[in-house]
Amino acid sequence: MKLYNLKAGMNPRRVRIFLAEKGVQIPAVDIDMAKGENATPEFLNMNPLGKLPVLELDDGTFLSESIAICRYIEELYPDPNLFGATPTERAIVEMWNRRMELELVVPMSAQFTHLSSFYAGRTEQVAAYGAYARAHALRTLTWLDVELAQRTYIASDRYSVADISAQCAVLLGKNTGVPLPQSLENLARWWGDVSSRPTARA
Ligand SMILES: N[C@@H](CCC(=O)N[C@@H](CS)C(=O)NCC(=O)O)C(=O)O
Fold this sequence. Notes:
- It is a single chain.
- By secondary structure, the chain is an alpha+beta fold.
- The chain has helices at residues 10-22, 41-46, 66-76, 87-115, 127-147, 161-175, 185-195, and strands at residues 2-5, 28-30, 54-56, 62-64.
- The protein has a 4-stranded mixed sheet with strand order 2-1-3-4, covered by helices on one side.
- Bound molecules: glutathione.
- Glutathione binds at residues 6, 9-11, 33, 38, 50-53, 65-66.
């Protein structure tokens, strides 16, 4: 297998942390987005959306979408499980991971795309949409603070893929003008926990 990676990207980081939590190493190829390496015909043949990460399987299949890649890795390497062990646990992790994607990963990514100078000239930017997305992400963080008063991690008292999605979105926010509001103490406690895991900088 081969992982096409973007070192600074939020989504490739989700997969790298997932692999590190499993103790699995896959050879990686770094793609330089600034040089347009994700827009070449060869890359678009792997993922027509021009986005990373992409996992190339040994039979030549290309998988994109971070969660599809993580699910594939979970099938190959079930322990430690990060998607839950029982039907109920798996459903709860799925519920929370989906919430984290729709309510945090997507708006955090949108505020970066639409408000940052990095994307100026690379894509159409709609500042009002960026501001709306930033407010959406902040609302989600405030909600998570309430949830995290009740348990250690996002989905349960055990670390899961939902934490990985959330921590990578929070890190992107911290680096792009959405710091964690100081008043959110439960979220700060959770951030301290997840960001001090040995895999956090994978
Ligand atoms: N839904 C995809 C999103 C992938 C994505 O947006 N990746 C970003 C890096 S974090 C990217 O490759 N962007 C390229 C671009 O904006 O041109 C996933 O979950 O993997």
